[in-house]
Write a structure and sequence with these properties.
By secondary structure, the chain is α/β, with parallel strands linked by helices. It has helices spanning 16-22, 45-54, 67-79, 96-110, 126-140, 145-158, 168-174, 209-223, 237-249, 262-268, and strands at 3-9, 25-27, 30-33, 36-39, 60-63, 82-88, 116-120, 159-165, 189-194, 200-206, 229-233, 255-259, 273-278.
Length: 303
């Protein structure tokens, strides 16, 4: 009997403990800073912080795995007689999803009796980890690869994603708005929410970190479900612990937390916090789609 293995991109920031406990496999992103190139990793947050400080001012480029990287990765798992559900970083954030889809098709041509599903998490950091957590839970219940993928795809459309940036100026550089500067005061806190395509839904300014967390906690309560809340902090642990403390005081008891790896830290800042949770069910159920396809589909390998 073939086994199912859950895999993900390193931007989900899976800790070594989780990888060992659930048998997870990850594909590494890379970070190019100036003339140096580093692997994305979460198991050494202190080194991540040192890396960001060391490369401060240098142009940073986040490099997703290429199609050949994913194909080698999937081929190795297929040779071990595994069906694969890969939870990719959102396609709005990088080319990782597109590359993984192309690789999965090629691997399934070479290994005709293997299933490889690529789920678009439609997010990064905490949002990606939330979909990964759902896939792990479904696997533990004995669900099939098709069922696990369908659940991950449906929940990714319902995931609410927030980024808390104590430095509004940094947010303005990342997401410039037509109205100009988001905040005139450096003491303001910016909270951005995004849709399932990575587009900014709203940007709000709060006078303090606490009031920002209060607004997110109210949105979580309004969702009315029992799913956990994921809180990912940057390499500096204080903003993470502060966010968790404030959210718990507002009634959120089931909180999963981790620190971001280098790729996420360099994107959102070393003092940023990412929060994600499952929102209300869609009024019109999303059409179920199986990607890259049914086992009877025939794909031609890409050149």
């Amino acid at each position: 009997m073939r086994k199912i293995i859950i895999t993900t991109d390193s931007t989900a920031d899976v800790t070594p403990e989780l990888k060992k406990e659930f048998g997870l496999e990850t594909v590494r992103f890379s970070l190019k800073a100036g003339s140096a190139c580093f692997p994305d990793r979460v198991d050494q947050p202190d080194k991540t912080l040192s890396l960001i400080d060391m490369t401060d001012g240098a142009k940073k480029i986040i490099i997703p795995p290429q199609r050949t990287d994913y194909e080698d990765f999937f081929d190795e798992l297929a040779e071990k007689d595994c069906d694969v559900i890969h939870v990719s970083q959102g396609q709005a954030w990088s080319a990782a999803y597109k590359n993984a889809i192309a690789a999965a098709k090629n691997t399934m041509v070479k290994f005709r009796n293997r299933l490889i599903f690529v789920a678009d998490s439609r997010g990064t950091a905490a949002g990606q980890a939330l979909i990964l957590d759902s896939a792990i839970s479904a696997k533990a219940k004995g669900e099939s690869p098709e069922e696990i993928f369908s659940l991950a795809d449906e929940l990714s459309l319902r995931t609410e994603r927030y980024f808390i940036l104590p430095d509004p100026a940094r947010f303005n550089r990342l997401y410039p708005t037509s109205s100009g500067a988001l905040a005139e005061s450096s003491r303001s806190v910016a909270v951005a929410s995004t849709d399932c395509d990575g587009n900014i839904l709203s940007v709000k300014r709060f006078p303090s970190f606490f009031t920002a967390c209060k607004s997110i906690a109210e949105a979580y309560s309004a969702a009315g479900n029992k799913f956990p809340c994921y809180v990912y902090g940057s390499a500096e642990v204080d903003p993470l612990l502060k966010a968790v403390s404030f959210l718990r005081k507002r009634g959120i008891s089931d909180i999963r937390m981790s620190s971001m790896g280098a790729a996420n830290c360099c994107t959102f800042g070393k003092d940023a916090v990412s929060v994600a949770f499952i929102g209300k069910p869609k009024q019109i159920p999303a059409k179920k789609k199986f990607s890259p396809g049914k086992p009877t589909d025939i794909f031609e390998p890409e050149e």
